[in-house]
């Protein structure tokens, strides 16, 4: 059996088309995250958009989001995540799914 | 006068069928989709059971953009090194009236929405519905959108806005969103030549294969799937949200591990990832279903959690199409009767109760949670493959042991109590039988 | 009068499997979008009509409807193969414009086109061109002249004052296109689009060849040993003789420079 190298995460995300809007449709309240020890979002977000920072916060980028809804469901801190859809016509566009 | 008779939110399978049904009965229908085209936001495993379309679009199979007709359906149970595969083949499924088909959602949903346009509905894309409009008595009377001058009024709104349904939530029809009721689906579309797919999966022409996988998800409760398209295959996993974060395993790593399983690797080898995608599934069936009717409002498809995700079944598109169609019909009937109150719209839920849409869900009520339970997920794959392995192993000169003894020994090895086995078997029998 | 906007139907991203974009993954570039927005802004303060044009197959009408929904008044599609020569496309676009006051274009298209259509349009209309604008300042009075900044090669900028008829091409970063209202989006899908069948051949252009200087004669290196010959070629300590300092008036200096370049073989 051959084990071929799995593609890098960036290459994986690059296979998806994102029509990026200038407004962030999801925002994360860094203050709430500082007290969070469980960090569900970091493991679960399929786009890996939640990055813990060295000073105990969370860095979030909205651009490559699949708009799945996982993060607001797994996060159990009220008010940490503000979640909306991007403006109509923007965001993820699937091709062969 | 209202801007439209019926506004349908979301041009997925539920929304488009609602729009077709309503437009056919002569209503002014506006179908609103937030993506740049219908299907652009939609992802699934890969098989549609379109027979329900016979009613709305006779001869749908002549124009629907399908990839392959499923003629082989396999269920695989994976342990760390072994695999039990139950495989059924019917070449009859490859001919009219057909059974299931693989298709890309950006193709299929777009085609279905065009049928709604042909039936007379107005399709408006790139427009996100942001909320419900209510009259002074609190009845739903339209929607607001994210466009300038974006309010639109109607007699009935049908919310087909998918698994996250903010409209159903805003209308107060969902109690609370509990992560336990959802699974995350992630998949890779892998390109392989048609020739290789035909050979590996034992099919030809436009015949296809559907493989559901139990086990192989790195200890995270869930399941896997492989579907064949014409010149790609879809490989993915479905993962229980609450367990995913508890197990500290990333979704893409779980797919990678599944792809490395000795029973899966030869099927996917050499396939290059041409697209990665993710989407939620309302997994809990009846246990999570919201109220589906309010004054001036109906909920259909995934928005109403009408998705059947019970282990070896992963069906949602057919439930969405059926519930959408019934919603469209009930909305028209209510408008004709000049009464769009919840009471009058209730004919919708009556229809669901009488047809497969809710009958299947009632029958399989306990199955989703059973299939995703820790015991089934973590102990049964080893138990089942262990039993079969011992049955087929030839240990000459030792004589073959009796099946009863193997079962009992393997059960103990897997740490399953006899009482648990009996209970699960009964739940399963009642559910599936 | 008419303000014309030329937009091109292109793939946003993803595989380009044929010359005809897949409608679902196609649209018009940010640059073309900016061109439309500037035209709409000017028309808002005047009685001008905004005419959008595109050249392409029937699928390209999607971008025209999009433009109509955002406020363009009229739309024309030139029915033509997307792979046609730029000058043919330009000539047909001009034919459908009838004496425009201004023509707006995006300065590049997503599909790495040659970007030559705007110049061909200016040539055919015989009006000025200001291409590659990176900033603009519209006047209060829509008919007054206005300032703009143009991108030059090498990161330099040129200030322009634009008045009268002109072909203008803008970068996508200059302005963001407005969002269409819901009502306009609904009505645009039913608005009429005029279709004109393309005619005519290529425009005459001077024959251009890539620049190739004449070969320069280099004498063989002198020296008895190989080492000396290599030294002769690679030695940098002694000058090989083009350096010369002269003092002259600009025009005389220019003549001198040309003469020297010719002598050294850089010019014919
Ligand atoms: C991984 C995975 C595998 C699956 N496998 C299968 C399978 O093999 N077979 C099967 O039958 N089913 C499968 N399903 C389930 C199936 O995909 C869904 O049940 C089905 O898509 C539901 O259809 P729908 O029309 O209700 O919702 P959706 O298909 O989700 O459509 C909702 C539409 O509404 C739009 N929308 C949402 N909000 C708004 C808004 N505010 N304004 C405007 N538009 C909005 C969305 O863009 C979308 O187009 C799978 C699901 C997943 C996630
Ligand atoms: S988003 Fe929620 S889960 Fe993630 S770190 Fe912040 S509080 Fe924790
Ligand atoms: S919606 Fe999904 S993809 Fe987007 S940030 Fe949340 S978890 Fe990640």
Question: Nutshell version of this structure?
Answer:
Chain A: One of its GO terms (molecular function) is iron-sulfur cluster binding. Chain A has 97 residues and is α+β, with helices and mostly antiparallel strands. Chain A contains 4 helices and 6 strands.
Structural class of chain A: alpha+beta
**Helix content, binned percent of chain A:** 10-25%
Strand order of the largest sheet of chain A: 1-6
In the CATH hierarchy, what is the class of the largest domain in chain B? Alpha Beta
Residue-averaged pLDDT of chain A, rounded? 92
Helicity of chain B, in percent?
25-40%
If you compute it from the alpha carbons, what radius of gyration of chain B comes out, rounded to the nearest whole angstrom? 23 Å
Question: If you compute it from the alpha carbons, what radius of gyration of chain A comes out, rounded to the nearest whole angstrom?
Answer: 15 Å
Spell out the key features of this protein.
heterotrimer, B: 433 residues, FAD/NAD(P)-binding domain, D-Amino Acid Oxidase, Chain A, domain 2, 17 helices, 19 strands, C: 268 residues, alpha/beta, 2 domains, 9-stranded mixed beta sheet, two-stranded antiparallel ribbon, 22% strand, binds iron/sulfur cluster, 4Fe4S_Fe-S-bd (chain A)
Outline the structure in words.
- Chain A: InterPro entries: 4Fe4S_Fe-S-bd, Fd_FixX.
- Chain A: One of its GO terms (molecular function) is iron ion binding.
- Chain A: Keywords: Electron transport, Iron, Iron-sulfur, Metal-binding, Transport.
- The complex is a heterotrimer of chains A (97), B (433) and C (268).
- With 97 residues, chain A is of the alpha+beta class.
- Chain A has a single domain, classed as 2-Layer Sandwich (Alpha-Beta Plaits).
- In chain A, 22% of the residues lie in helices and 19% in strands.
- Chain A contains 4 helices and 6 strands.
- The longest helix of chain A is centred in the N-terminal third of the chain and has 6 residues, at 9-14.
- Chain A is globular.
- Chain B has 433 residues and is an alpha+beta fold.
- Chain B has 3 domains: 4-41 and 49-56 and 103-175 and 287-363, FAD/NAD(P)-binding domain (3-Layer(bba) Sandwich); 179-282, D-Amino Acid Oxidase, Chain A, domain 2, CATH 3.30.9.90; 368-432, no CATH class.
- Helices cover 37% and strands 26% of the residues of chain B.
- In chain B, a hairpin with a 5-residue loop joins strand 8 (129-134) and strand 9 (140-145).
- In chain C, a hairpin with a 5-residue loop joins strand 8 and strand 9 (157-162).
- With 268 residues, chain C is α/β, with parallel strands linked by helices.
- Chain C starts with a strand and ends with a helix.
- Chains A and B meet through helix 1, helix 3, helix 4 and strand 6 of A and strand 11, helix 7, helix 8 and strand 15 of B.
- Bound molecules: flavin-adenine dinucleotide and iron/sulfur cluster (SF4) (2 copies).
């Amino acid at each position: 059996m051959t084990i071929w190298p799995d593609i890098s995460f960036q290459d994986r995300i690059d296979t998806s088309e994102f029509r990026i809007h200038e407004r962030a449709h999801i925002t994360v309240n860094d203050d709430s995250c500082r007290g969070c020890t469980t960090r569900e979002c970091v493991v679960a977000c399929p786009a890996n958009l939640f990055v813990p920072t060295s000073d105990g916060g969370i860095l979030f980028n909205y651009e490559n989001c699949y708009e799945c809804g996982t993060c607001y469901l797994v996060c159990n801190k009220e008010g940490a995540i503000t979640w909306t859809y991007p403006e109509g016509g923007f965001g993820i566009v699937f091709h062969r799914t | 006068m209202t801007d439209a008779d019926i506004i349908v939110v979301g041009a997925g399978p539920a929304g488009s069928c609602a729009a077709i049904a309503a437009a056919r009965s002569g209503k002014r229908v506006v179908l609103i989709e937030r993506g740049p085209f219908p299907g652009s936001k939609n992802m699934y495993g890969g098989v549609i059971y379109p027979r329900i379309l016979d009613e709305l679009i006779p001869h749908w199979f002549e124009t629907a953009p399908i990839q392959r007709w499923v003629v082989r359906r396999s269920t695989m149970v994976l342990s760390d090194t072994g695999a039990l595969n139950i495989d059924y083949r019917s070449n009859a499924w490859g001919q009219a009236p057909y059974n299931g088909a693989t298709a890309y959602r950006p193709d299929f949903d777009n085609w279905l929405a065009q049928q709604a346009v042909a039936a007379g509905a107005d399709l408006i894309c790139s427009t996100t519905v942001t909320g419900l409009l209510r009259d002074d008595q609190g009845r739903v009377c339209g929607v607001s959108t994210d466009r300038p001058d974006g309010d639109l009024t109607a007699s009935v709104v049908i919310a087909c806005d998918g698994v996250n349904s903010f409209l159903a939530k805003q209308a107060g029809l969902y109690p609370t969103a509990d992560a336990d009721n959802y699974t995350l689906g992630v998949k890779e579309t892998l390109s392989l030549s048609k020739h290789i797919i035909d050979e590996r999966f034992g099919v030809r022409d436009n015949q296809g294969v559907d493989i559901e996988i139990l086990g192989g998800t790195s200890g995270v409760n869930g399941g896997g799937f492989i579907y064949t398209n014409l010149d790609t295959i879809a490989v993915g996993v479905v993962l229980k949200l609450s367990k995913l974060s508890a197990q500290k395993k990333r979704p893409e790593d779980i797919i990678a591990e599944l792809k490395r399983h000795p029973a899966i690797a030869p099927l996917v080898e050499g396939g290059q990832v041409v697209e990665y995608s993710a989407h939620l599934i309302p997994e809990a069936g009846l246990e999570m279903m919201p109220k589906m009717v309010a004054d001036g409002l109906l909920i259909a498809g995934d928005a109403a959690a009408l998705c059947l995700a019970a282990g070896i079944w992963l069906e949602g598109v057919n439930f969405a199409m059926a519930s959408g169609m019934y919603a469209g019909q009930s909305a028209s009937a209510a408008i004709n009767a000049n009464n769009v109150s919840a009471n009058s719209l209730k004919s919708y839920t009556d229809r669901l109760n009488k047809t497969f849409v809710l009958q299947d869900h009632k029958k399989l009520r306990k199955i989703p949670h059973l299939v995703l339970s820790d015991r089934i997920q973590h102990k049964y794959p080893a138990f089942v493959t262990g039993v079969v392995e011992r049955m087929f192993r030839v240990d000459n000169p030792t004589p073959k042991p009796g099946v009863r003894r193997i079962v009992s020994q393997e059960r103990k090895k897997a740490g399953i109590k006899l009482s648990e086995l009996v209970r699960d078997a009964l739940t399963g029998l009642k559910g599936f039988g | 009068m008419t303000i014309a906007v030329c937009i091109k139907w292109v793939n946003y991203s993803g595989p380009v499997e044929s010359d005809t974009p897949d409608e679902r993954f196609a649209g018009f570039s940010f640059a073309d979008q900016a061109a439309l927005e500037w035209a709409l802004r000017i028309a808002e303060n005047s009685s001008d009509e905004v005419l959008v044009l595109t050249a392409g197959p029937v699928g390209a009408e999607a971008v025209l409807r999009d433009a109509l929904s955002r406020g363009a008044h009229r739309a024309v599609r030139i029915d033509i193969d997307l792979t046609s020569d730029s000058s043919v496309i330009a000539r047909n676009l001009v034919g459908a414009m009838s004496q425009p006051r201004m023509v707006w274009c995006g300065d590049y298209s997503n599909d790495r086109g040659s970007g030559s259509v705007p110049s061909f349009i200016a040539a055919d209309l015989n009006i000025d061109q200001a291409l590659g604008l990176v900033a603009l300042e519209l006047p209060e009075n829509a008919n007054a002249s206005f300032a703009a900044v143009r991108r030059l090669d090498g990161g330099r900028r040129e200030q322009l004052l634009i008045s009268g008829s002109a072909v203008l091409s803008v970068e996508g970063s200059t302005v963001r296109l407005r969002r269409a209202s819901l009502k306009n989006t609904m009505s645009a899908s039913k608005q009429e689009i005029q279709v004109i069948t393309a005619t005519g051949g290529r425009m005459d252009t001077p024959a251009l060849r890539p620049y190739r200087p004449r070969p320069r004669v280099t004498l063989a290196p002198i020296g008895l040993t190989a080492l000396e010959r290599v030294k002769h070629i690679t030695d940098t300590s002694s000058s090989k003789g083009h350096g010369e300092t002269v003092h002259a008036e600009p025009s005389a200096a220019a003549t001198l420079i040309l003469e020297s370049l010719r002598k050294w073989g850089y010019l014919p």
